[in-house]
Each structure stands twice: as C-alpha cells, then as structure tokens.
Design goal:
By secondary structure, the protein is α+β, with helices and mostly antiparallel strands. Helix content is 18%, strand content 32%. It has a single domain, classed as Umud Fragment, subunit A. One of its GO terms (biological process) is signal peptide processing.
Length: 180
C-alpha cells in the first residue's frame, strides 16, 4: 500500500514538473528587467512574464531578440501602418497619437528625432511590412530599438510582457499607459 502511494506521488510530481517545463518552453518566458529595459512602468529587477502566444497590440511592451541579445520596447506601429515622427509628435496613419505614457511628472524631457518608415528602412518601405513592427523604448535617448536595429520582425519577438511577479507590492498585470 505504501509503495503504491509513493509511486502515485512520484507520478503526480513528475506530471507537475513536466507541465511547468512545457509552459515555460511553449507559452511563457520569464524576464528579469535590467537597467536598459527599465522605464516608468518596468523597474530594474522586476520579474515579468512574457506571453509567447498573446496577440500583439499597440502600446504593448514586447521582449525581442537582436543578435542574441534580449531587449524590451513598446509597439508603436504594426503591419500596414505609416509612421512619421515630426517635431516630437507621432503620426500613425496620418493621425496624431498622443503618447501620454511619456509625459510623467518629474521625468526629464523626452525627444524623438524626426523619422519615417522610409528613413528606418532606407527607402525600401513606406509602411510597416508584413510580420514587422516599429518598436521604440520609452527612454527615447536610448536608441537600441527600431531606430538602431530597423523594423523588428515577428520572428525576433519572444513575447508580450503581460504579468509582473515581483516585487510583490506590484504583483499583477502590466500597466501600459496606452497611447491615445
């Protein structure tokens, strides 16, 4: 009787371990926010879960990889969008998008250089091509984003940051401060 119970518990433990590993490999990616990834919504040493299967939306924070290194940025434009930054204003599909998430009291002024999809792609595209994204950091002085790497392809995106594990005082879904 005791031996059979031991086998049942071991089988159950093995099933739980395999389930956690499967979720980690195919669904979720844990992300520890470093200083370069941090902004007013994500702070250094936060532990965040990136969902590999979530459909990406405007304003989402995404984890992506360029040359083997991981980065976090905000989705500004998606397939088919035209984008112009002019005099520090974002025009997406010829409409002004108010980036209220950048206007935080006590934060230094931000400035985004004038650019278009044409300038980022060296005149190869006038709109964001299929399976590509324009991703920018909230810290606009840090140009390690689409301004340096070009448009980010769907294959480079690991997942969308959705849930904060630590610190426990901020446990819950990620606030995005959506663009209006």
């Amino acid at each position: 009787m005791v031996k059979r119970d031991l086998y049942n518990y071991l089988g159950l433990a093995l099933l739980v371990i395999l389930s956690v590993i499967a979720l980690r490999v195919w669904v979720y990616e844990p992300v520890s926010i470093n200083e370069q990834m941090a902004n007013q919504y994500l702070t250094k040493n936060d532990l965040i879960i990136a969902d590999r299967n979530k459909q990406i939306e405007y304003g989402d924070f995404v984890l992506y990889k360029v040359d083997g290194k991981k980065y976090v940025g905000r989705v500004i434009a998606m397939e088919g969008d035209s984008v112009t930054y002019l005099y520090d204003l974002l025009y997406r599909n010829d409409e002004i998008i108010h980036e209220t998430y950048l206007n935080i009291k006590g934060q230094p002024e931000y400035y985004t250089e004038d650019m278009t999809i044409e300038t980022l792609t060296h005149d190869r595209h006038s709109v964001v091509p299929k399976n590509s994204y324009l991703i920018l950091n909230d810290k606009r002085t840090d140009k390690r984003d689409s301004r340096q790497f070009g448009l980010i392809s769907q294959k480079q995106i690991i997942g969308s940051l959705t849930f904060r594990i630590t610190p426990l005082g901020q446990f819950g879904f990620i606030e995005k401060g959506l663009a209006q």
